[in-house]
Amino acid sequence: MAVLVTGGAGYIGSHTCVELINAGIDIVIVDNFYNCKKSSIDRIRALVDRDFKYYECDIRDKEGMDKIFKAEKIDSVIHFAGLKAVGESVEKPLEYFDNNVNGTLVLLDVMRANGCKKIVFSSSATVYGMNNISPLTEDMPVGGVTNPYGRTKYMIECILQDLYTSDNSWSICLLRYFNPIGAHKSGTMGEDPNGIPNNLMPFITQVAIGKRDHLNVFGNDYATHDGTGIRDYIHVVDLALGHVKAVQKVEKDEGCFIYNLGTGKGYSVLDVVNAFEKASGVTIPFEIQPRRAGDIAICYSDPAKALRELGWKAERGLEEMCEDSWRWQSQNPNGYPD
Ligand code: NAD
Ligand code: UD1
Fold first, then answer.
1. pTM (2 d.p.)
2. What is the pLDDT of residues 205-239, one digit of tens each?
3. Which residues are catalytic?
4. What atom of ligand 2 comes closest to residue 150's alpha carbon?
5. Taking burial as the number of CB atoms within 10 A of a residue's CB, which of 165, 206, 247, 288 is the most buried?
6. Which residues pair with 124 in a beta bridge?
7. If you write DSSP's letter for every residue of 222-279 in order, what string do you get?
8. Residue 218, ligand 1, Cβ within 6 A
9. Is the N-terminal amide bond of 135 cis, ω within 30° of 0?
10. Alpha-carbon distances, residue 14 vs 6, 45, 52, 88, 172 (angstroms)
């Protein structure tokens, strides 16, 4: 039996595939390679001692997905496939709802038709919206999202919860990620954004490698220790290990479970800049800019529920996250090869 990993060639998916195989779990990857390179599959292969299959397929392709389910013995699904750029989602809402929401509906339909009712879904801390006070717990109200990307995550959470209500034989795990950064220790896998990075760490590493001349720090007048925004950065390998625990949970228990995957610690933008400079030995020039629209001051998790129910907690600190991000970027200045 195998776990089908949608979006398994992407940033979080590829790291998760390595940890699933390390844990002795067979995988099958489905990706349409819209936001990643095929060489990421080779990089996964080079790090594991067991082979796996991958399919180039869009999750919205019902026939294609059905063929994969018929050809493989799929027991459960980890569903990463989706578009994730907040700004782009404001410009292209229909594309985001189609890819993320419609894509998930097609996937669930094909799963049901093939008797597969176990799914782990990549949600986001963005569903907590602007009004909850950190540390964020899973029982806080969700849905006050400010952009179409966030709304797709919230809508998919609702769809999965309604599905479980309609049929209690599903096992569903909604994982709310905080801010994944870092890379595999080998320096062969990491985050490879297209164009100008939206997120903090890839922007910092591109400044460090000389692709951008400085970092823009969005706001230094928040009510935080140095005025810059605070987030809960989590090492992508810790996040990947959380998925191993989550898939074992849905294999074992029926229910609809929700877990934060974060460290529970918040760091400011300038804390991250300082930690990165220490880890890399490279100075990061920065300029203070106005606040970015839609940003909140402070966002970090209470990760206690995942420890209690999954036996999972993040082990890697900010220093290691910075060292590993830098190793990846410095060894692969242009990301994955074509
Ligand atoms: P990513 O873009 O690197 O990975 C997503 C993968 O899905 C890509 O390889 C892409 O080619 C594939 N994909 C997209 N649409 C597809 C489709 N219709 N059919 C098949 N494949 C498709 O992104 P990531 O950072 O690895 O994120 C993975 C998931 O986690 C996403 O759902 C994202 O929204 C969610 N998430 C990410 C973060 C983050 O900061 N990276 C935070 C919270 C949640
Ligand atoms: C962003 C998204 C969120 C998504 C998450 C992970 C927004 C408003 N939110 O979260 O929906 O789930 O990414 O993909 O886009 N910063 C700078 N300069 C930069 C980039 C970021 O100062 O060039 C600051 C931000 O203001 C913030 C912190 O760094 O305080 C982290 O930003 P980012 O990495 O974009 O993550 P989030 O804003 O938490």
1. 0.98
2. 999 999 999 999 999 999 999 999 999 999 999 99
3. 149
4. 11
5. 247
6. 177
7. SSSSSSS-EE-EEEHHHHHHHHHHHHHHHHH--EEEEEEES-S--EEHHHHHHHHHHH
8. no
9. yes
10. 10, 10, 12, 23, 21
